[in-house]
Amino acid sequence: MNRILVFLTLSFTLTLFACKTKPPVTSFSCNLEGTELVLSETCQPKMDCSFTIKNNSGIKIEYYNETLNSAMVESGDKVVFIMDRKYQDNPNIADDEFSEKLYFSIPAGKTSFHMEGKELEEAEMVFATLAYSRDGGYYPVLEGCMEGKLNEDGKWLVQGKITITTRTQRKIVKGIRANYQVK
Fold it and tell me: CA nearest 57: which of 20, 39, 82?
């Protein structure tokens, strides 16, 4: 009986230590203070989300009458980061579907990046809020900070805080801390 108790105690202790894997500690300077919700690969309930990377890609941005109209990933020579969050449809509520997308790129071959201000525009950073609302649409990200580091496992840890100004002059602030992986 004592052997069984010792065996169970030892097994339980080893299991606890084996499950306590910590993500790599990375020191980032982009401040997430004041952000209500930090977006990550851990989805909220009733939501599907992905944080992916496409190598050998670029971002195609289209304008209509000086208004950003769409953004999509195409072939190119950069690394493109894609956040895609979709809220699942409730069949009892009309037009409740909602999606958020974030695109940005960095030059191929980099293992880390930090961008602010004009660098966000150079990275072709675009945020989309796609819903049946007056603020739905694609927006260039011109304010904020985004940084990332390539980990040994091939995933990128990315953190940042961005602000988007909508057509109605409403400010949307998004915090992000997520692991992006190659798609």
Answer: 82
71: tokens are 């953004």
Residue 18 lies in a domain: no
| pTM for this prediction | 0.81
**List of residues 6+ apart from 90 with CB closer than 8 A:** 46, 96
60 belongs to a structural domain: yes
- Quote the tokens at residue 35: 């952000």
Q: How big is the CA angle at 144 (ends 138 and 147), to the nearest 5 degrees? A: 105
- How far is CA 137 from each of CA 26, 77, 111, 131, rounded to the nearest angstrom? 33, 27, 31, 8
Sequence-ordered alpha helix ranges (H) in the chain: 2-19, 118-122
β-strands 98-107, 126-131: how paired? antiparallel
Are 123 and 158 in contact by the 8 Å Cβ rule? The answer is: no
Half-sphere exposure (Cβ direction) of 9: Cα atoms closer than 13 Å: 6
Q: Tens of pLDDT along 6-53?
A: 333 444 343 333 333 334 445 789 988 878 778 888 888 888 999 999
Neighbours of 113 (CB within 10 A): 19
Number of domains in the chain: 1
Percent above pLDDT 90 for the chain: 57
Give the pLDDT confidence score for residue 141 in this predicted structure. Answer: 96
Residue numbers of the domain that contains 33: 26-182
Task: Note whether residue 30 is domain-resident.
Answer: yes
156 vs 10, which has greater pLDDT? Answer: 156
